[in-house]
Design brief:
Helix content: 40-55%
Structural class: mainly alpha
Strand order of the largest sheet: 1-2-3
Distance between the termini: 36 Å
Largest sheet: 3 strands, antiparallel
CATH superfamily of the largest domain: Ribonuclease III domain
CATH architecture of the largest domain: Orthogonal Bundle
Number of helices: 8
Shape: globular
Radius of gyration: 19 Å
Number of strands: 3
């Protein structure tokens, strides 16, 4: 199978593209084109796919948990559309097999979890632009509904939980520091480090500082056994 053969991917998605160029574009990394035309890569589609994914998952959550309070729904939504979740779905779709990349330097691959997460959203946007919201919803339901139905683990606010835990131990209020920012302006990725007293710091990544802070706090809570790994 060549990287240009997307017929198997269409079967995996359950959507046959009328405009196959949309899918090719969703699978094209900037290294595969000449210049920096985002219109020829997955970047703009990823921007759209993020919004389509959020809308559909929010609607699915309302259907699955009609009596849940808004805060509970928001925390579920945040986890389900996170970069980690999208990277997992990209793995289920085997998008790395189809990613169109340039030469690059030997030993280095652009198919990082972050890139694959973005490509996953770009593919969702390609389906949306090709077949409309019903088609995009069908793909999202195929991959996200099982995750919604089997979702486990704590849904509390990680930053609040970490602060409460730290104060119970007599430690200072957790301190958050930005370590790095990468990615294009329309889809940045932040890395945040949280320090709690004299214990080892924790780090997290996210598309906003708030998301990265939550991930950093969660990392500490899981490492210290306050939260389970679920």
């Amino acid at each position: 199978m060549t990287r240009g053969d997307t017929s198997q991917l269409e079967k995996t998605l359950g959507h046959a593209f009328a405009n196959k160029d949309l899918l090719v574009r969703a699978l094209t990394h900037a290294s595969a084109i000449n210049g920096s035309d985002a219109g020829k890569t997955y970047q703009q589609l990823e921007f759209l796919g993020d919004r389509v994914l959020g809308l559909v998952v929010a609607d699915l959550l309302l259907e699955c948990f009609p009596d849940a309070p808004e805060g509970n729904l928001s925390r579920r939504l945040s986890r389900l559309v996170s970069r980690d979740a999208c990277a997992e779905v990209a793995g289920d779709m085997e998008l790395g097999k189809y990613l169109r990349v340039g030469g690059g330097r030997r030993g280095q691959s652009p198919a990082t979890p972050g890139v694959l997460a973005d490509v996953c959203e770009a593919v969702i946007a390609a389906v949306y632009r090709d077949g409309g919201l019903p088609a995009a919803r069908a793909v999202i339901e195929r991959y996200w509904l099982p995750r919604i139905e089997t979702m486990s683990g704590p849904l509390r606010d990680a930053k609040t939980a970490l602060q409460e835990w730290a104060h119970q131990r007599g430690a200072a209020t957790p301190d958050y520091a930005e370590i790095s920012r990468s990615g294009p302006d329309h889809a940045p990725e932040f890395e945040i480090e949280v320090s709690v007293g004299d214990m080892a710091p924790g780090r997290g990544r996210g598309r906003s500082k708030r998301e990265a802070e939550q991930e950093a706090a969660s990392a500490v809570l899981r490492r210290e056994g306050v939260w389970s790994e679920g």
